[in-house]
Amino acid sequence: MLGPINADQVAEFIIHDIEITSSSIDKSIGIADVAKKMGKVASVHLKIDTGMERTGVHWYNAERFIEKSYELESIRIKGIFSHLAKAESDADCTNEQVSRFESVLNTLEKKKTLPTLVHLANSAGIINCKDSHYSMVRPGIMLYGYNPNGYLPDVTFDGRKLKPVMTLKTKVSFFKVVPARTGISYNHTYVTKNQTRIVTLPVGYGDGYFRLLSNKGIAIIRGKKYPVVGSVCMDQCMVDIGMDGTAYNGDDALLFGEMDGFIIPLESICDKIGTITYEFLCGISSRVPRIYRTI
């Protein structure tokens, strides 16, 4: 458990033998007290703040925190870690964080108390900064096949390419011919210029297809790319395929990822609405059916 914890969670972590993060002297004492009452020894990772300013003890105040944590009999220090703030965008900042973390590790090494697990690198650190690897790394977005540096399909890492593991697609559920100068969806934020063909897709912001993609999203149907038009609804959105477009109820529609050799990079969708792949992937709701395939 690498995030912050509350006191009432500690016993449950210990029961299930989950390693716990301590981000302050008070947290270490609290974990030790619970473990002692349970007759257990808790495994703990110490969190050092080297520049993220989220949780953890500042690197320049870390010595007392570490010493006190090691003094507590009911906890075992299994690891020590920090987190990189700008590894995908700022090498100087990243190197500074590595240097700060190193200063803490040097103190531990001199006292012969360096734990087994030392970790700093997130996905961007794994790719961009080998000095941050240590004895353990923490891949996040890389596990989904996305590069934190952006859409770089031809870039390799140790001779291997990242391949996105997720595709979002749906099926055409309705088709109609719409006259010119007709408003589409809520508040008519899109008005047809000419007679056209509009298809409805049964996906919306309730599924994680953001409302911000209104008049910005794209869909590929039968190998052709078309715009998502009008406001994205909770459960549906509309696509303008023009008078020359062809679509039938039940046709597959790609919203991002890869289908039949066609690609909509998720990064390109995120760029349109000012978000990141992390947020979009997390936003795909549990009501969307998952189909898992082995490759």
Describe the structure.
The protein is of the alpha+beta class and 295 residues long. It has two domains: 133 residues, Alpha-Beta Barrel (TIM Barrel); 116 residues, Lyase, Ornithine Decarboxylase, Chain A, domain 1, CATH 2.40.37.10. The chain is 24% helix and 24% strand. The strands form four sheets. Strands 8, 9, 12, 13, 14, 15, 16 and 17 form an eight-stranded antiparallel sheet that branches. Strands 1, 2, 3, 4 and 5 form a five-stranded parallel sheet that branches. A hairpin with a 2-residue loop joins strand 13 and strand 14. The chain is elongated.
Number of domains as seen in the coordinates = 2
The Cα radius of gyration reads 25 Å
Superfamily (CATH H level) name of the largest domain? Alanine racemase
Low-confidence segments, given as residue ranges, are: none
Query: What about the largest sheet?
Result: 8 strands, antiparallel
Distance between the termini: 31 Å
CATH fold-level name of the largest domain? TIM Barrel
Structural class: alpha+beta
Q: Which of globular, elongated, flat, extended, rod-shaped describes the shape?
A: elongated
